[in-house]
C-alpha cells in the first residue's frame, strides 16, 4: 500500500497533498536556499493526527518536516534536506484555545498568526509582545519556538519569553507537556483550579521547553503553546531620537532601559526606517524608537512624569526625543512596528527579496559589527540604501539582537550573486568577531557547530533520546541527513 494511502487513513484523502507544483513550492524559500522536493505534504487536524503520523514515520522509515506559517518562509528552516520527506503542514490547526485575561496568557495552536492573536487579545484589553512588524501569515508558535525577539525589552526577562508551556509530540510519537501544564490533572481540571499553564519550567526540575526552542523541528512537534500577554495601555506616546552615529544612541538607550521607562524600544538605520515607513521621508542615519505608556489609573499623569524624566536623561546624553523627525510621525511608526500583515512585507518592499543575517551581542559591541559589515558592503559595491540594520535590545538591555538585511532583486542574477556573496562574507566576519549565532540557519549551522564540538556531542545525545529514529527534520543544526 502506498504512503499516500497510509496517510489518508489518518487524515483523509483531501488532507494529503501530492500536487507537484505545491510540493515544489516547499523545496525552496525566499532565502534562495534549495533542498529536496518533498514526497508529499500532510495537514493534520489535531494532536491525535500528529501522533499517528509521527508513529507511521517511525514504522515506515520516512522523515517529517514540520511547518506552521502559511507562506513567505525565508530562512531555510522548513526546506526538506533529505530525499523522500513529508511536509507536516500544521497551518490548519489554528484555534485560539483560550485567552485568560486574569492571568494574562493565551493558549494557541500552531497555525494561529500574529494578526489573528493580536485581534483576539485586544478584545480582552490585552497586548501581545510581538516581533518587529511580523508577516501576516507568520505563525506565532513558529516565532516563539525560533526565539524571535520582541520589541519590548522591558517585558523580556529571559530567552524563553514570552513562551510559557508547550504540548509536544516527540520524534518517538510520545506526548509530553512542559511546565505546569504537565499536571496533575487535565487542562480543564487545571483551569477549574485556577491554573493557567504559565510557568515554563517543569515538570519538576526539567526545562524541556528550552531544548525545543531553537531546535528547528528536530526534536519534537508542538501542537499548542501558551504565550504571556501584557495589559493594553490606555494611553501611549511614541518618540524618535535621531543621531548621526549608532554610538550616539547606545548610552542613552542603556540608561532608559535600566530605569525601565520605555515599553517598545529599538534602533533602526535610515534604510530600515524608510522600508518600514514607506513614502518620501528623510530619517537620520540612526533612529531610536521608543514608547511610554499609562495603564488604568492616572495614565496621563504617568505619561507626563515619564516624559519629564526622559527629557532630563536625554539632556545628560546630548540627544533630543521628538514626536516627529525627518517627516516621520513617531506614533504612526510605532503603529507600523507593532502591527502585522503589511503588504508587501517591509523587508521585501524595496527590491523584492532579502537575506537576513542576525545574531546576539551586546549594545556596546554593536557599532564594531556595523562598521565591519558596512566595510564589507562597500568593498563589494553593495548599495548602502539596500542594507538595513536593526538593533533590538533584549532582557532589559543586557543583550541585543543585531540584524542586517541585504535587500536585492531576485530576478537580477548579478544582484542576487552580489547579495549572496556579501551575506556569506559578512556572516563569517561577524562569527569570527564573536557574534553569538543562537539561531543557526543555513549556511551558518556548520560553521557555528564546528566551533563547539562539546555542544554537538550533547545535542546528539538529546536527539537520540527524543528522536531516536531520526524522523524529524534531518540535516538541520548538527544532525546529519541520516540522523
How would you sum up this structure, described in words?
The chain has 483 residues and is of the alpha+beta class. Helix 8 (247-258) crosses helix 10 (299-317). A hairpin with a 4-residue loop joins strand 19 and strand 20. It has helices at 3-11, 20-27, 47-60, 114-122, 140-145, 187-192, 208-212, 247-258, 270-277, 299-317, 330-338, 366-379, 413-432, 444-450, 453-466, and strands at residues 16-17, 40-42, 64-67, 86-89, 96-100, 105-108, 126-127, 163-170, 175-177, 220-228, 230-231, 235-243, 265-269, 286-294, 321-322, 324-325, 328-329, 353-361, 387-394, 399-408. It contains 15 helices and 20 strands. The strands form 5 sheets. The chain has a 7-stranded antiparallel beta sheet, with helices on both faces. A 5-stranded antiparallel beta sheet has the order 5-6-10-8-9. Strands 1-2-4-3 form a 4-stranded mixed beta sheet, with helices on both faces. It is globular and about 75 Å long.
Please give the count of helices: 15
The rounded distance between the terminal residues' Cα atoms is 26 Å
Range of strand content = 15-25%
Strand order of the largest sheet: 15-12-14-13-19-20-18
> What form results from the Cα inertia axes?
globular
Average pLDDT, rounded to a whole number, is: 94
Rounded to the nearest angstrom, the radius of gyration is 23 Å
Structural class by helix and strand composition: alpha+beta
How much helical structure, as a percent, in the residues? 25-40%
Oligomer: single chain
* Uncertain runs: none
Largest sheet: 7 strands, antiparallel
- Structure summary, number of beta strands: 20
